[in-house]
Design goal:
The protein is an alpha+beta fold. The protein is built from six helices and eight strands; from the N terminus they run E-E-E-E-E-E-E-H-H-H-H-E-H-H. It has three domains: 40 residues, no CATH class; 100 residues, 2-Layer Sandwich (Tetrahydropterin Synthase, Chain A); 26 residues. Helix 2 packs antiparallel against helix 4.
Length: 224
């Protein structure tokens, strides 16, 4: 019997229920009598862990989903170790995700979104090896925060922005008042500055300057 194995698969040959050999890519001649073949795909594939609701260390519920890139590294172990190796690894990813999130606060989970998969991968690596698989990549797909927490965060951000705007307005008012006070002190100490400023306004044009050559008489009170 001729057997052709593709580049992305391996063929396990069993004789009377016992493992006999593993065939790599290419054409092979195998005796068919009392033998059975099992084809195992060894190319990488995606394993999605849907959103899992987990309580963080500060008691807040958050939903996190994962996407893992896995590959069969040991076809014989993958086939013989358990009935459903992918399901076995899927459960291990679920448990690893829950343990990693439960040990952090919500702020830490959101801040460590890129580093969170590293801790999960460390927990799952041994389990993957036990079923003949290797974890080539792991990423957090979604972190879903409850609507009430999103609204609270939006309120905090709005309050922070309003406070910052009020602080900037207060700073501007203080700066303007300080500038006016400095100008008044300079005019008091050096009266000639006011005349120079008047001449600058006349030279620049577009300004109306009223000059008085005689003092304005003070109002008199009628005799009683």
């Amino acid at each position: 019997m001729r057997v052709t194995a593709q580049e992305w698969e391996r063929v396990l040959v069993y004789r009377d229920g016992r493992f006999e050999t593993e065939l790599g890519p290419g054409r092979h001649r195998v005796r068919a009598w009392r033998r059975r073949q099992v084809r195992v795909l060894v190319r990488p594939r995606l394993l999605l862990v849907p959103a899992q609701e987990v309580l963080t260390a500060d008691g807040l519920a958050v939903k996190v989903s994962l996407i893992a890139t896995v590959r069969v590294a040991d076809p014989r172990r993958w086939h013989e170790a358990t009935e459903d190796a992918d399901g076995f690894l899927y459960v291990a990813l679920q448990i690893g995700l829950r343990e990693a999130v439960a040990g952090r606060t919500l702020d830490e989970v959101l801040a460590a979104r890129d580093s969170l998969p590293e801790g999960i991968a460390e927990r799952v690596a041994a389990t993957a090896g036990d079923v003949g698989m290797v974890l080539e990549g792991l990423a957090v797909r979604d972190v879903m925060v409850p609507a009430e927490l999103r609204r609270a965060a939006a309120d905090v951000a709005a309050a922070r922005a309003q406070g910052q705007a009020a602080l900037e307005r207060a700073r501007s008012e203080v700066a303007a008042a300080r500038a006016l006070a400095n100008a008044a002190r300079m005019v008091t100490e050096q009266p000639g500055l006011l005349q120079l400023r008047t001449l600058q306004a006349v030279e620049a044009g577009g300004a109306t300057v009223v000059l008085s050559t005689s003092p304005v008489p003070a109002p008199t009170m009628p005799a009683s």
